[in-house]
Design a protein that fits this description.
Layout: E1 8-13, H1 48-55, E2 60-66, H2 75-89, E3 94-98, H3 106-114, E4 119-123, H4 145-151, H5 154-157, E5 160-163, H6 170-179, E6 185-187, H7 198-212, E7 217-221, H8 233-247, E8 252-254, H9 267-278, H10 283-298
Helix pairs in contact: 6-7, 7-8, 8-9
């Protein structure tokens, strides 16, 4: 086995300055339901200098900024902010922008987002069902005709779609992928396999296998933290290896989800853990996982030094 020691493109990370920008969920005194529990520790400035310091010796050459639940009344404001960071710091190198696909202004917002050279994708979390038991009693926005009409506009702008939804909603995502074959769907956070007992992982794997059968999808190995548990290769290795098995390394990409996942791990040891997990893969597969897949899927010209 040979551990990867090359350049890294982080396919999922965030920057923010809650003291100067409108993030309702990061405001003082605000607490929303959060899968990692208490998130007070991340209500602080997090910019590229913090991120590079956290990465330590790892050679991160590019990153994808993912929208941060900025005030939904100003989605283009967040894009302008992220693009300004890129000019000042050299990061990020692509943007997943905010767009509410079922709003009256969706056409104008998508046009405005697509006008920014760094925007490659948009994200709109589709909501319920919130548990496997609710499937069949309610549907996500992926099945809503108004939302789908907004989704249909992505193709004309050459935009991808970043999907964040738990695995039990992926059958709706399969329908979406098949109905819009020219739009790439990038599944965030491995489909959120929050429970790691054998029965839950088997159900997660089945849903992921059905999703992976769609040719126009990819997935991020990101957001794998577990509340109250330290991030460890032993805990997350089975998830990452299943992703590679189902999708192939050419459709799986590394993402740190920092600073959110700083609630579960330090960045440098996390990256080291990912390197340990994928070390049994061949050199080309490791390269795809850490930089090649994200560069191709998001269309990023990242250096290979």
């Amino acid at each position: 086995m040979s551990r990867y020691d090359g350049p890294i493109l982080d396919a999922h990370q965030h920057f923010w300055e809650p003291d100067r920008n409108p993030h309702p969920w990061l405001a003082p005194g605000v607490r929303i339901p959060f899968r990692y529990g208490d998130y007070e520790a991340i209500k602080r400035r997090y910019l590229p200098d913090d991120y590079r310091r956290d990465a330590g010796p790892h050679d991160i050459v590019a990153s994808v900024y993912v929208e941060t639940e900025w005030n939904p009344g100003d989605p283009l404001g967040e894009t302008a902010y992220a693009a300004g960071l890129a000019v000042e710091w050299g990061l990020p190198n692509a943007i997943v922008a905010q767009a509410w696909l079922d709003r009256d202004d969706v056409a104008a917002v998508l046009a405005g987002q697509a006008a920014c050279p760094l925007v490659r994708s948009v994200r709109h979390k589709p909501g319920e069902p919130g548990s496997p038991d609710e499937v069949g009693r309610c549907r996500t926005l992926m099945s809503d005709e108004r939302w789908r009409a907004g989704y249909a506009l992505l193709r004309g702008h050459g935009l991808r779609f970043d999907l964040q939804t738990p695995w039990w909603n992926l059958d709706e995502a399969v329908d979406l992928a098949l109905d819009f074959p020219d739009t790439t769907i990038i599944l965030n956070h491995a489909g959120l396999p929050s429970r790691r007992d054998p029965d839950s992982l088997e159900l997660w794997r089945g849903a992921m296998a059905r999703f992976a059968a769609c040719p126009n999808v990819a997935v991020k190995a990101s957001g794998l933290g577990q509340p109250g548990q330290a991030w460890a290769p032993e805990l997350n290795g089975p998830v990452v290896r299943t992703l590679v098995d189902l999708f192939g390394a050419d459709r799986v990409m590394f993402g740190s989800n920092f600073p959110v996942d700083s609630l579960c791990a330090d960045l440098a040891p996390m990256i080291d853990g990912f390197k340990t997990i994928v070390a049994p893969l061949g050199p080309s597969e490791q390269e795809a996982f850490f930089i090649g897949t994200a560069r191709r899927v998001y269309g990023i010209a990242a250096p290979e030094r």
